[in-house]
Amino acid sequence: MREKFLPFSIPTIGEEEINEVVDSLKSGWITTGPKVKRFEEAFKAYVGAPYAVPLASATAGLHLAILALSLKPGDEVITTPMTFAATVSMIVQGGGTPILADIEPGTLNVDVKAMRAKITPRTRALIPVHFAGQPCDMDEIFALAREFNLTVIEDAAHAVGTEYKGARIGSLDSISIFSFHPIKNITTGEGGMVVTRDERLAEEISLMKFHGMNREAWKRYEASGTPNYDIMMPGFKYNMMDLQAALGLHQLEKLDRFIEMRTIIANLYNEAFAEVPEIVTPKEVPYEHRHAWHLYTPLVKIEDLTIDRDAFMAQLKGENIGTGLHFKAIHHHPYYRDLLKIQPGELPNADYASERILSLPLFPLMTLEDAKDVVAAVKTVIARNRR
Ligand SMILES: *Cc1c(COP(=O)(O)O)cnc(C)c1O
């Protein structure tokens, strides 16, 4: 057994990030300011989009993007049950009714045919989630959106650096929302970014993100600024700080290298688990793409074992291997079980995955030896509990 506990994820913070944060602390400017502006510009350039709004989190971005839809009571937004609660909770907070469409069994991305089957006259928007960093079939989703005149909001929390048919996620004709939470592919501590090609939408979200002030507040305190301001709407406090952007500026420069390192580990897992019948490895999407490998999420065939998934994770912890759970399906949470009243058998692929999925350690600082320890521990737990 491994001597030292291997966590499921650790952020990769280098001297560059540390020095940049110290520079901000010494500069007298720690909240939204020039570094946020620089990070916004660098992020736009990286994904290839004309407008970006840096925010306190991806949840804030989802909230504002959904509020911009101006939903009326009863309006429906279709998304996947295989996501973090924020995706669905922000539909509720935005005044909409969340509708869950089942996932594809292999990639665990939302099934576009299932989305189509859920469309009604009340449907206003589609929110695909690029699960684990693999792109959804955006051509199909855009075709569906055109046919029924729907807005597409991409939950791109897993997809910083993901590419779909040669295009970066963020560059497509939609609204994309990225997360920089510490377990995501790059981090600003907490943080998020909304990216769009729609100038009017970017302005609306910018206004909502900071009290509804009619211009970038930080400029008020510059030599050229004036202290007066106008409130144009009752806004939120969702701005990103320079302290956060200080991290993001250097993380973004390292992103492609991070993805290469994640890919090496994921490939090692895929090869090692190909010969373990109790482990179902994640399937690749059938079109050209770059997987950002935010997560490595195999399914454990609990029907072949005497223990359930939670006990499987507990036993891996006993072997000094940390795991994550991404995700228990949305409709298995008490609030959404009561709200959505999903019938048994309505989302069979999500139910199946929800009870078997776990996230194995995957982060750039991991060594190949660490990954081999994970494989060995998984095999040990399987051998101990085989039916
Ligand atoms: C992490 C995550 C979010 C929320 O991101 P935050 O930046 O923590 O608000 C939203 N959707 C998905 C799919 C996520 O994994």
Automatic annotation (TrEMBL):
GO biological-process terms attached to the record: polysaccharide biosynthetic process
Active site: K184 (proton acceptor)
PTM sites of type N6-(pyridoxal phosphate)lysine: K184
InterPro entries hit by this protein: DegT/StrS_aminotransferase (IPR000653), PyrdxlP-dep_Trfase (IPR015424), PyrdxlP-dep_Trfase_major (IPR015421), PyrdxlP-dep_Trfase_small (IPR015422)
Domain of life assignment: Bacteria
UniProt keywords, alphabetically: Capsid protein, Pyridoxal phosphate, Virion
Pfam families the record matches: DegT_DnrJ_EryC1 (PF01041)
PANTHER family per record: DTDP-4-AMINO-4,6-DIDEOXYGALACTOSE TRANSAMINASE, TRANSAMINASE
Record-stated family: Belongs to the DegT/DnrJ/EryC1 family.
Protein name, as recorded: Spore coat protein
Annotated source species: Geomonas silvestris
